[in-house]
Specification:
By secondary structure, this protein is mainly α. Among the domains are: about 5-40; about 395-460. Helices cover about 55% and strands about 5% of the residues. The chain is built from 27 helices and four strands. It has helices spanning about 5-15, 20-30, 35-40, 50-55, 60-65, 70-80, 85-95, 100-105, 105-120, 125-135, 135-140, 155-160, 175-180, 195-200, 205-210, 235-245, 245-260, 280-290, 295-305, 305-310, 320-330, 340-350, 375-385, 395-405, 410-420, 430-440, 450-460, and strands at about 185-190, 210-215, 225, 230. The strands form two sheets. It has a two-stranded antiparallel ribbon. Helix 21 packs antiparallel against helix 22 (about 340-350). The longest helix has 15 residues, at about 245-260. The two termini are about 20 Å apart. The relative contact order is 0.11.
């Protein structure tokens, strides 16, 4: 008999984290579903290898000056964190506030942005937008260093309204201009110690390492502005305050949360013309947004405990990074930083997702857009190869645990069910299960043979259900 409580928590962990093995799920199930939600929202403190030790094992994961190391470092953290929702929300914000190396050309700045997302992941949306507006990588990405009181640059102001907070149709072109005026003088500085003494701008590499936000009051337009129907001598903080109290902002963030955690919605540019799949769910999240004074964690609590979330099992295609991080958590390959993280990062990129380098400011299109004839082969090959590798400690432990419960007379059906349970209480359609049982039945003799168990696990990882969340 299947344990429906474990299956429900497995669904939660696939969405609010990167999945979990059977042992982890049973630990959560003993606490109960609502208690698990609270633990995810309020982790007791992340247990992880210190950054100093990461630097010793893999120096580039600390330096992060090139295009790949920030993503490698982040993927390693996703695969090993004890605070999975924090990393999942960091990925959520990166997907919305998409910033890329192709223009920033500064890995450390992108890694600093990731840390900023992590700090504010489930906190106030207002605090997050202020952090974003002061973030050096975002300032460079959308040219706010070129936004001056006598020559405004609208890039950040436009994307703040269009893609980061409200969506097309909820503001005017004049609002974009007034928003840009409010952010004049919000720029970056890059000085090292010797240059601070001489007050000269710095050059590569020392100054670029220390990019930080700086406000230039002499370059700020402090004149009166009219923005979204309000008038005043607004600066960027005032603009963020006005944005956060808009019903359009609440709906925009609610729809993003629904699309990321519940079921895939169309790409953001289609939202003015395509209504939400579940308008009542969006209304519920909007209410939580205002009731909590813009707290994202409060919205997530409502979402995870809702019937619409609990009913949406396997309604989403895992992104490449979600798939890779989830597999790495099962295999236990990275008990410490290893050179192989570069290969795993590259494998996610072959599937179509390069961390810290989205295709545009719009981010990635999700759902079945992740799948084509090339990326699907990459995904299946990666998952099956990793999950079938008994050289990986996590897989070896699974095989031994399953084997200890089996005997030569064990039925193929029981072995398949044990493998499905071991990878995280995976539920599969009946036709998928028949294929797995048929594969297991081809083994002549001992169903408890360790290599045969590994082969069945490999087949489980190749199923369409394993590719979904």
């Amino acid at each position: 008999m299947r344990d429906t409580n474990v299956e429900l928590i497995a669904h939660l962990l696939r969405r609010a984290g990167f999945g979990a093995n059977r042992d982890e799920l049973e630990g959560y199930a003993a606490k109960g579903y609502e208690a698990t939600v609270e633990e995810l929202l309020n982790p007791r403190g992340e247990q992880r290898l210190s950054d100093y030790l990461v630097r010793r094992f893999h120096p580039e994961l600390s330096g992060m000056m090139g295009p790949q190391a920030p993503g490698e470092n982040w993927l390693y953290r996703m695969a090993t964190t004890t605070a999975p929702l924090q990393e999942k929300m960091t990925l959520f914000w990166h997907s919305i506030f998409a910033t890329g190396y192709a223009k920033v050309i500064h890995g450390k700045a992108l890694s600093d942005q990731t840390r900023m997302f992590r700090r504010h992941a489930t906190g106030s949306f207002r605090t997050l937008l202020l952090g974003l507006s002061r973030d050096p990588a975002m300032i460079i990405w959308l040219d706010n260093q070129d936004n001056h009181k006598d020559a405004i640059n609208e890039n950040y102001g436009r994307e703040l309204l269009e893609l980061f907070s409200m969506g097309v149709g909820n503001y005017t072109e004049e609002d974009v201009k007034e928003c840009a005026r409010a952010f004049t003088g919000w720029t970056i500085a890059n000085r090292d110690y010797m240059e601070l003494r001489s007050q000269r701008d710095s050059d590569w590499p020392y100054g670029r390492i220390s990019w930080h936000f700086e406000f230039h009051p002499e370059d700020h337009d402090d004149g009166e502005k009219e923005f979204l129907g309000e008038r005043g001598n607004f600066d960027g903080r005032d603009i963020v305050d006005i944005i956060c109290k808009q019903p359009a902002t609440a709906r925009f963030i609610s729809r993003h949360l629904y699309s990321f955690f519940v079921a895939d919605e169309p790409p953001v540019p289609e939202w003015p013309y395509a209504p939400p799949a579940d308008p009542e769910a969006i209304d519920t999240l909007v209410e939580a947004y205002f009731d909590s004074n813009y707290e994202i964690g409060a919205m997530l609590r409502v979402l995870f405990n809702s019937d619409f979330f609990k009913a949406a099992r396997y309604a989403k295609v895992k992104s490449p990074v979600e798939l890779v991080a989830g597999v790495l958590r099962l295999t236990g390959e990275f008990d410490r930083p290893r050179y192989e993280i570069l290969e795993r990062y590259s494998q996610a990129s072959y599937m179509g997702q390069i961390l810290n380098n989205p295709p545009s400011v719009e981010g990635w299109h999700t759902g079945t857009d992740w799948l084509n004839s090339g990326t699907l082969v990459e995904r299946i090959n990666f998952a099956s190869q990793q999950v079938g590798d008994v050289g990986k400690p996590g897989i070896r432990a699974m095989v031994e645990r399953i084997g200890s419960q089996m005997s030569a007379a064990t039925s193929p059906e029981r072995l398949v069910d044990a493998c499905l349970e071991e990878v995280g209480a995976l539920e599969v359609k009946e036709d998928t299960r028949r294929v797995l049982v048929d594969f297991s039945s081809r083994k002549q003799g001992d169903q408890a043979d360790r290599q045969h168990i590994a082969d069945v696990l490999q087949m489980v990882a190749a199923t369409q259900e394993f590719q979904r969340a």
